[in-house]
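Severity: low
Component: inverse-folding endpoint
Summary: output formatting inconsistent between runs
Steps to reproduce: submit the following structure tokens with default settings.
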């Protein structure tokens, strides 16, 4: 919009000194642009915004916390026994893989060890596994995940 190429936005996000942000100025961002599964009419919002925190740093951090808040709400919807027995979580996608702050916030909020598949094309891998089960290379989906290797993040 400004007529200039801002360069690598992800690199700019990752260079922000997030630990230096004032906790009292952090924004409350709801990232529900298209509603929720339970209520599609819900819309996003930015709360607590003012002159001191209307900055790139606070906006990016607030949006990442908003994303994690949505993910945490999905986790909280799981049956209690499953939530309480969980010790790790697997994250996929470039947003997760390439954004250390997103991973850190998620780990803090869920208090679980984070892992990610070593393969970067998770959808393609999933399609290959489905095809493998379909053609008999794997006896079941339960046995098809054995080739997947995870790295601790």
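Observed output (run 2 of 3):
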């Amino acid at each position: 919009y400004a007529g200039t190429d801002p360069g690598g936005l992800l690199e700019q996000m990752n260079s922000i000194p997030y630990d230096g942000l004032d906790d009292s100025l952090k924004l409350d961002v709801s990232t529900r642009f298209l509603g929720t599964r339970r209520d599609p009419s819900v819309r996003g919002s930015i709360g607590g915004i003012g002159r001191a925190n209307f900055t790139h740093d606070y906006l990016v951090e607030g949006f990442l916390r908003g994303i994690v808040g949505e993910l945490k709400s999905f986790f909280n919807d799981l049956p209690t026994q499953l939530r309480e027995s969980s010790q790790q979580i697997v994250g996929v996608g470039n947003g997760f893989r390439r954004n250390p702050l997103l991973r850190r916030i998620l780990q803090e909020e869920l208090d679980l060890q984070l892992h990610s598949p070593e393969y970067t094309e998770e959808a393609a891998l999933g399609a290959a596994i489905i095809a493998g089960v379909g053609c008999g290379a794997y006896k079941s989906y339960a046995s098809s995940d054995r080739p997947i290797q995870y790295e601790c993040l």
